[in-house]
Amino acid sequence: NLDLVHPLPMATAAVLLKACILFTICQISWASSLQEQDSYIIHMDVSKMPTVFSGHEDWYSTFLASDSFKAADSSDATMVTTKPVYVYTNAINGFSAILSPSQLELLKNLPGFVSAYRDMEVTRDTTHTFEFLNLSPVSGIWPASKFGEDVIIGMVDTGVWPESKSYADEGMPEVPKRWKGQCQSGIGFSSSMCNRKLIGARYFNKGLKAKNPNLTISMNSPRDVEGHGTHTSSTAAGSYVEGASYFGYAAGTARGMAPRARLAIYKALWEEGSYASDVIAAIDQAISDGVDVVSISMGYDQVPLHQDPVAIAAFSAMEKGIFVSSSAGNNGPTLSTLHNGTPWVLTVGASSIDRKFGATITLGNGVTLFGASMYPRLDSSLTRVPLLYSEATKACNSSEILNNVGHKVVLCEFSKDTTTQISTLASSSVAGSLFIFNSSSDLSDVILDFPGAILRLEDSKAIFRYIAKSRNPVVTIRFGGTVTGTKPAPSIAVYTSRGPSPSTPMILKPDLVAPGSLVLASWTMNSSTVTVGQKSLFTDFNIISGTSMACPHASGVAALLKSVHPDWSPAAIRSAMMTTASILDNTNNPIQDEGQPAGGLAMGAGQIDPNRAMDPGLVYDAGRDDYVKLICSLNYTKRQIQTITRSPSHIDDCADIDIDLNYPSFIAFFTGKHPPTVKTFKRVVTNVGDGGATYRAEIKPMKGFVVTASPETLVFQKKNDKRSFVLTMAKTSPMEDDVVGGSLSWVESQGNHVVRSPIVATKIDAKPL
């Protein structure tokens, strides 16, 4: 307030107050020299905004436009006005801007400043999968949810190819009235391209442009020119497309996990680069538009929660009941490599499915084998071509040797440098190749641009026997084969990032796994999928792998659950997905990870099971206050905490900290010179069954530990009843392995519900960033 003897009109007072603010800026000293500028994301406390300002943008712009602020980075008379790149009001409170170090320091002294960090680049992380996940049009979660009808999924990615049949809106009702989004026009994209399926499309690249002022954006619109965003969105909620395939592979009718859900596209990832400020702007807009689910197949590595744009924006989304699904990353199989280990989002790892692509290989003696391949030229099959194996050629890495082979199929020993082998073969005169590989890994996507296939070592023995007995061995190779029902499946993808989470290791991550390897989904028709020889090939469906492909499977399932249970919180939906996940493959044995039973740091709770998730029996729920207590336990400063929570009122609550979040999994660390011998966890479960129920605890033993649950029986009188219990892990002998796994299952006494949670004990030294 202005303390004046003679009161001034309000408008005059406002002008004077703004002048005072600018004068205050002038009083702060700084070096008036040219300095290297950078893009920053600034978090502000909006409760400190003086009432004279019309809004946040007016407030921010006022001090950015002051001569003294401009002079902080200028040594001549020409001073350029700094303007916000973005103003954020939903995902965070604050803005992004290009600032010099002196300007940043000046900003830090202003009332209302909370925190700032540099804008960061993004790390990015197909339709048989619905059958593999047991989704049926006549029973289970699909009909119960009306196939996800009217649930809105917001995809933050590389945009969309609107002409794809996956976005057809035939038979869909009008767009929900609650939808506030829009279809933004741009290069090669008009607002008329949206419909009742694709209900919104926007693009965000101000942050990218601010970092690169002279950059020309090739496709400045929501249109996808890379394929990634089209692939993920059609996986989550694509419409039915008959006759879909990748050059004949995986032929059938494609559809997404929630084929009747609506899609809203937020393009924040670009060919030219991708930055956090644009991602935050996309999530900020998605919250405002009214999405129900946000799917993010990207992340940031090795950053604490208060500097993680996805974590910060997702916190605001969670507060508004929006479910956020994210990818774990593709840096496996090393431990502690995942990103998006945020407690309030679903972190999704990748698994394989029961489908193989390849070639039928028939030897001259009639023996038929199947080799992994995705060579797209199905018209280039090889018929009774001479087969060669020799010491000179088996390495398949010498152009000089291979050029003397002639029109033959060469038997090669698979090496780690497969790219060099295939390029050498492709540039030679050989007709084709067969690779010998001593692994059960699916390598179909390795052989794409050369007529070859990969054989497992045990299958190749038949070839060696044939060559040894034949004077003139020949082979016939027919490409384009697709085999389903293969076993065992699923298995954990070797590339999927593992826990513990660097930012919050006390929360077991990933949460679960979903199909991510060799997934067929829609693609952009301007982007070549493969080059054979000198010819680029195009197709409207592509098969690719990654946790980016796993995440939208989970996002689609979340949309189905949101439709069946609109009153469930994001935490309840996540809990239902986790506690009903499967730990067994289709041979009824434990899911494998590199030849060993998969553990919690690789697969979390297990493979997603949509139908069981619809009726979990019990859920572990959590809300904002629970997450704030966890954040307070991380030894963050008040400003770092406020960066995440946005509201300073919660900072005083840090007297009540709790590292033990009500989470549907458990991880304990037994590290240090004097490691603990006992760990306890407190949990509360809510009965979401139709009536009363009784559950008893079943513990899977853990080597070197005694694990107990108290009480051992939970009795619920009615729906929505809550019961608490304590899980205790007592170490009885030194840990021989770095990681030991087990589980707690609450088994319904007179019913079919089994509520399972993974337990991990580890001596890995992991501390929060």
Automatic annotation (TrEMBL):
Name the active site residues. Answer: 157 (charge relay system), 228 (charge relay system), 548 (charge relay system)
Span of domain Peptidase S8/S53:
148-589
- Name the family: Belongs to the peptidase S8 family.
Which CDD domains does the record match to this protein?
Answer: PA_subtilisin_like, Peptidases_S8_3
**What PANTHER family does this protein map onto?**
PROPROTEIN CONVERTASE SUBTILISIN/KEXIN
Entries under InterPro entries matching the protein = Peptidase_S8/S53_dom, Peptidase_S8/S53_dom_sf, Peptidase_S8_Ser-AS, Peptidase_S8_subtilisin-rel, Peptidases_S8_3, S8pro/Inhibitor_I9, S8pro/Inhibitor_I9_sf, SBT
A cellular component term, taken from the record's GO annotations: extracellular region
Note whether Glycoprotein occurs among the keywords: yes
Q: Which SUPFAM superfamilies match?
A: Subtilisin-like (SSF52743)
Keywords per UniProt? Glycoprotein, Hydrolase, Protease, Secreted, Serine protease, Signal
Inhibitor I9 domain location:
39-123
Q: What name is this protein filed under? A: Subtilisin-like protease fibronectin type-III domain-containing protein
**Major localisation:** secreted
Listed GO molecular functions? serine-type endopeptidase activity
**Which parts of this chain are annotated as the region Disordered?**
215-234
Q: Name one Pfam family in it.
A: Inhibitor_I9
Q: Where in the cell is it found?
A: Secreted
Organism name: Nymphaea colorata
Ranges for domain Subtilisin-like protease fibronectin type-III come to 660-760
Q: Which GO terms describe its biological process?
A: proteolysis
